[in-house]
Amino acid sequence: MRSYPALLLAIAVIIGASFLTPMLNTYILGRIMYIGIMISMAVSLNLINGFTGQFSLGHAGFMAIGAYTSAVVTTWASTHGGAIAVGNDPAMFLIALLLGGVLAAVAGLGVGIPSLRLRGDYLAIVTLGFNEIIRVLIQNLDFKIAGVDYIGGARGFSVLPLTTFVWVFITAAIVVFCVENLVNSTYGRGFLAVRDDEVAAEAMGVDTTKFKVRAFVTGAFFAGVGGGLFAHSNYNITPLDFTFLTSIDIVVIVILGGMGSTVGVILAAIILTTLSELLRSVPQYRMIIYSLLLIILMITRPQGLLGPKTMDKLFKRRKKQDLSPIEA
Predict the structure, then answer these.
(1) N or C: which terminus of the chain carries fewer CB neighbours within 10 A?
(2) 8-61, pLDDT tens digit by residue?
């Protein structure tokens, strides 16, 4: 999805599909919306881990910042009333999501700066620590204004259910559109240069510092927006929704889909989220089966379901088929 007509077509399809959602029960619709949120989360992390080559384990921390920020805004709006402060106003919900994304992006800037000196396992530990700091801070905050609890600490925070099918999948389409256009633009080739060989990129005049920090800020912004959608698709959020295990789930989706492959990551998000739900019927064996399947998939497809090389082969084969025998 690299052009505006493709984005507009995707939005039209999403709006058309939304008219079918009343035929689905609440549980199925909720799971479909969760898949859409995970697509946004995984594609945004793919910009950091897959396209820029940084190894971040703190995406759930950005998600938590976006979730709580947007939830505070909509809760405040619903309790204060007035023409500009109505909790179920789409404009107010959009503002809440964007504010969540902006604060998460600011946090991404704070995490991105250490990445200037750290890489690999060391950067993973720093981002993992960031995730836990955010979770523990939220868990111990008890923030009340005029008797209204805006954080809830460990017991959680009640949130207005404002997220809909259209909100989730239009956001996912915009995230895919932005990331694909960014990394395939002339400017965005810098992200790939940093991933492939940072020293060589610097020698060629690429400002690797800016690209690494911008990858964190951009990925964190979209994770914050995804967190806002997640918060408002539930009636209650708690710090346990944003542990490092949530970050691990998103990283697994990116690795299994193929680092640097947007199509592969989307496919992996659909497969793994659906698989996790199907295994809920056997809770005693769920994690064992889930882990075994992941091991088998990584042994048989170490490059991911649709890694960049696989996509290149598919496109080259398609081009050869399109050419005449003499041209081929």
Answers:
(1) C
(2) 899 999 999 989 888 888 889 999 999 999 999 999 999 998 888 888 888 899
